[in-house]
Amino acid sequence: MNLQGERPYVYIATLGNAPQVVTIALDQLLPKHRFVEVCVIHTDASSEANLPQMKFSNMHQTVQTLDAEFQNLKVLEETSGDKLWRADYRIGNRYFQFRYRRVLIQKEVQQYGELPTYEPIQDVENEENSQAAFRTIFRVVKRYKEQRAIIHFNLAGGRKSMSVFAMSAAQMLFAPGDRLWHVMSGAAFMNSQAMHDDGTSTRLVPIPYVSVTSLHPALGMLIASNDPYDILQAQENYLHLMDLQRKEKFLRTLDFDEYQILVGVAQGLNNAEIGSRLKKSLAAQTVANKLTTIYETYLVAISEGVTAVSRPESDNMRAFLAAEFGAYFQQRNERLEE
Questions:
Q1: In contact, 182 and 155? CB cutoff 8 Å
Q2: What is the pLDDT of residues 6-56, one digit of tens each?
């Protein structure tokens, strides 16, 4: 068990049609990291529901199979979408004890004039249910991060979209020390439905990810909501504002001709056309030289610590600047008139 003050380890897994992906990864990770809690995220597992039949079983049978791997279950907490037990778990001759939590993916149902209710989803097969799955995964990860937990997330179970949502949640919330995992196994082993492996049939593979908050710490300040879609919108707005401020700061460093040349490039004009439309006509080669200077200065401005850049092909340089500033000048209706 963790010493007082030590950050706790938590194991999270999404559950699909193969419960063994949960136990296979747990078997390999638990001896190295004494998890205080194991959390499994799944769709509707009620026996009376009209559940989709999966490759091996439906979700009710899958959950029953998984639950049987945890011994001496003692209920600690239970809500409509969250069940928590104290459990024992055996790996070979070793026994481990931790809290075992199952989280049900539910979607919000809002009727006019009434408080919202929640109902379990049976599959992640449409946009509404996919959003519910993403929100559930995000909230689970966020809750553990608020408790300073170090997370090992096994994203091998469930539909591919659930793996994508787990990756997205990790990028938004994970910190150094957190890990993403995937289970690799052969068809023969999976068809055997064995819940444990001796190490010869499966492999646990780390999944690399880029932490948004580590890459840009200011974005971490935006993660206040429990709804990932609110956070994504806030991050998009923030990045758009930062991009706008960066562009306007750069444009203020240009002289009049350089500014007009950039307007012409964003407009899709060639160097000769730009030169002829300037207040003081310039030769096409002069425009080309100034354009190269603009490109190099802009790259230095947006690349921290970079003082020199390589010169690309002329067409690539124009395409880059047009893509960067096209929408900016279009929104302001700035054009070089004939």
A1: yes
A2: 899 999 999 998 999 999 999 999 999 999 999 999 999 887 655 555 555
Q: Given this structure, which CATH class describes domain 9-215?
A: alpha beta
Q: Are 2 and 36 in contact (CB under 8 A)?
A: yes
Domain range list for the chain: 9-215, 253-331
Tokens representing residue 35 in the block: 């998890």
- Which amino acid, residue 146? E
> What are the two backbone dihedrals, phi and then psi, of residue 276, each rounded to the nearest 5 degrees?
-75, -20
Q: Tell me which residue of 90, 94, 118 sits closest to 106, measured CA to CA.
A: 118
Rounded to 10 degrees, the C-alpha dihedral 231/236/238/241 comes to -160
Q: How many residues does the chain have?
A: 338
Q: Residue 138: count other Cβ atoms within 10 Å of its Cβ.
A: 23
Buried-exposed string 77-87: b where 16+ CB fall within 10 A, e elsewhere: eeeeeebbbeb
Query: pTM, whole model, 2 decimals?
Result: 0.70
Question: For residue 189, what are the contacts with CB-CB under 8 A and spacing of at least 6?
Answer: 197, 201, 202
Tokens standing for 285?
Answer: 């080669």
Cα end-to-end span (Å), the chain: 77
Q: Can you point out the beta strands (E) in 163-308?
A: 179-185, 202-206
Is pLDDT at 2 greater than 50 in this prediction?
Answer: no
- Give the ranges where 15-75 is alpha helix by DSSP (H): 20-29, 59-67
Q: Distance between CA 305 and CA 245 in Å, rounded?
A: 19
Reported as a pLDDT band with limits 50, 70 and 90, residue 175 is confident
Contact 219, 242 (CB under 8 A): no
Q: Where are the alpha helices (DSSP H) in 268-313?
A: 271-277, 284-302
* Contact (Cβ atoms closer than 8 angstroms) between residue 129 and residue 123: yes
**Token representation of residue 136:** 């559930």
- Strands 71-78 vs 202-206: parallel, antiparallel or unpaired: unpaired
Return the closest-CA partner of residue 153 out of 162, 195, 124: 162
